[in-house]
Design brief:
With 211 residues, this protein is an all-alpha fold. The protein is 81% helix and 0% strand. The chain has a domain at 129-211: Tetratricopeptide repeat domain (Serine Threonine Protein Phosphatase 5, Tetratricopeptide repeat). The chain is built from 11 helices and no strands. Helix 3 (63-75) packs parallel to helix 5. The radius of gyration is 23 Å and the shape is globular. The relative contact order is 0.06.
């Protein structure tokens, strides 16, 4: 009987100790996650990646930790690692449109065109109102010199968010390649007004006659 009580007490102690250890690890993971978000705001993606990596080591059940680590990885050109982290994120939380979007960006950056387009399609099926996906797919088509599809996707992005400067910026290049210089220059002017500083340089180089 005494042995039974002793084993029961030990068992309860181990459970409580384990729970406290897990809670502490999760708390520490959240601290690293918040720090990583701060680094993202500062555009310090290498340090953000390190912070998110620590978070994922301490808590392997939080899909946001892996997803944010992946985004920091994409921004710091760790594309294969990003794909692995996004695969984990989607196992933990299936059906998140943005995770498929980011996988598309990673595949695009690795030159895997078909895989990228497959991921963009999954993203739009899950959320057809996310303009960022259409921008990414539009830029992907632009790089492939498929200018009509690029314009079509960037048009959709602009319809969803008319103040999305990057959509006008990239649509300008597609229109320019389609020999619509006036339309291109109008898009670059709009992009500049929407705080895309790169647009001014393009305007100065290519749109002198359109002023």
């Amino acid at each position: 009987m005494n042995n039974f009580l002793l084993f029961t007490k030990i068992f309860i102690f181990l459970i409580l100790f384990s729970q406290n250890f897990i809670l502490k690890a999760q708390s520490n993971a959240e601290d690293f996650f918040k720090k990583g978000k701060e680094f993202i705001t500062q555009k310090n993606y290498e340090e953000a990646y390190k912070s998110f990596e620590e978070a994922t080591k301490l808590d392997k059940t939080n899909h946001e930790y892996f997803a944010q680590k992946a985004w920091a990885g994409i921004k710091s050109e760790k594309y294969k690692d990003a794909l692995s982290d996004l695969k984990t994120a989607l196992k933990l939380k299936p059906g998140v449109s943005e995770y498929h979007h980011w996988r598309g960006v990673a595949y695009d950056s690795l030159g895997k065109d078909k895989s990228a387009l497959d991921e963009y399609l999954k993203a739009t099926k899950l959320d057809s109102k996310n303009p960022g996906v259409y921008v990414s797919r539009g830029v992907s088509y632009l790089k492939k010199k498929n200018y009509n599809n690029a314009v079509a996707n960037l048009n959709t992005a602009i319809q969803l968010n008319r103040r999305l400067g990057e959509a006008y910026y990239w649509r300008g290049f597609a229109k320019y390649r389609l020999v619509d210089s006036q339309g291109a220059c109008n898009d670059w002017r709009t992009a500049m007004q929407l705080n895309i500083p790169e647009a001014k340089e393009i305007l100065d180089k290519l749109c002198q006659e359109e002023k």
